[in-house]
Every structure is written in C-alpha cells, then in structure tokens.
Amino acid sequence: MTDQYLTTVLDKAERVAEHHEQVAQSSDHPEHEYLRYAVLRLLEGKADETSVEVPQIDGVTVGYGEDDAMCNSWDDDVEWWETVPPQEACTRFRVFYPDEYDAVPRVIVDVMAALGAWRVWIGSAAACGSYDHRERREVHYLWPEGHPVEALLANRLQDPEAAVAPDGGRSGDVRDRMVVTEHSPQHDDLEPRTSRAVDESMAVSLLEKGGRYEVRSASGNWYEVDVISESCTCPDWRKRTPEGGCKHLRRVDQEIKQGRVPRPDGRLPSNS
C-alpha cells in the first residue's frame, strides 16, 4: 500500500505545482513545498481524483512548519522536543484527529510512510496548548529537506523533452533498447514478452507529445502506453507490472528505435 500511496502523493504534488505554484514562490526547495502541501490536501480530504482511494476521516487537519522555528516559538510550553531535539532543515507535521481513535488512523500512517516521514510524538492536542483542537489528539512527523521523494517529483516536473533519451526512449530506461526483428540472430534469445512484442502484429501511433502512444494489438484491442511514466492500460501491466514492461511498452520501444513512429518529443529519431 505504501507504494500506491507514494504514487498518489506524487500525483497530487504535480497538481499542486500546476495549480498552486505560489506555495513555493520564495522557496529554494519547491518540490519540498509541493509535497508537504499535497499531504495536507490528501489528509484533509481536499484532493481531486486520485489513483488510489484515500480514506477520509472527518476532523483531520494538518499543520506544518520548520522544526527549529517551531521549537523557538513553543519550546518552553510543550514537551515535543524532549524525545527528539529540534532538527535543522526539517519539516514537522502536526496531524490532528478525533480522540475517539485509540491509535493513529491507518491512512495517516500510510501517507506519512509513503512520504518517508517518521513519527516523533503523539499526545493530546489540548494538553499542548492547541485550544482550537480540543477533544482531539495529534501526532507529529519529521521529514527532512532533500528527501529522495523530492527527486522523484522533480523528475516528473521536468520538461518532457528532457526526460527522453537521444533515440526517443526514456532516460535511464531499464528495458533492453537494442533493435531486433523476427530475422535478427539474437531473436531466439529474447525474453518471451520481447519476443511477442517483435513477432505480433501491432499498430503504434503517437497520441500526444510527451510520450503517450496508442497500440492496437493483434487481438484488436487498443491500449495506451506512456513511455515517460512506463505504464500501459493493458491487463498484463495493470495486474502484473512485469519488470521490463509489457509487450506493448516493448513494441513502442522498438518502433521508436527503428524510426517508425515519432519520438516522445514529437520528432523522428535523428538516425531515421
């Protein structure tokens, strides 16, 4: 579930960057700002459609700030830093939830785990002087600036042309990008899905600049392939997510490599 929530957090952070870019207007770490605001909106039930259904709990609110700055404001009045001292360049999330829950609601745990934050304090909100949150509890998480999740978001936010390799494939693509045909000497050594990708009759066309292709399979079904996010709408990909991609992803790779379809950036490969 953590991986699914990570995708959801990243999806939401992308939309934050697109529609609420002001949250990072004066920040040197915009991805950090987008992600923590995305977490707030997810847990407070303000998210739009998400790839994974995020359970909503009435009464959950989220606050956050720089941990050392919060310590300077609250240190004399609360016990938050007795266990873990204030951390530099680190966000402290304060997540409030109804005190009817004996434990931290699972959705809070899962979303924070996906982000890579760790829990450092839990207790009564009223006892911490949070008088607007009586009859609720709060749990605190720390999350450092420069966390690897920020790099994942940065990669998503970069210009699509920067995310493709010179031959039109995705930079860092894990799939074997050699050109093969049914007559190639290495054909018999191919992994079964790659072999089917080469042998079966498929029609490939670029749907949208940025790496989205449409594939008509031999069965007559149509599937959408995204070579940037490495995904396909076919049952094999949705159910198994095979390493190296489904046959449709691999076929699109081959078509791009051989110059039969435009690159993800809309241009034909330079060697075509």
From TrEMBL:
UniProt domain SWIM-type: residue ranges: 223-257
Protein name: SWIM-type domain-containing protein
Annotated region (Disordered), positions in chain: 249-272
Keywords associated with the record: Metal-binding, Zinc, Zinc-finger
Biased composition (Basic and acidic residues): 249-266
Any GO molecular function: zinc ion binding
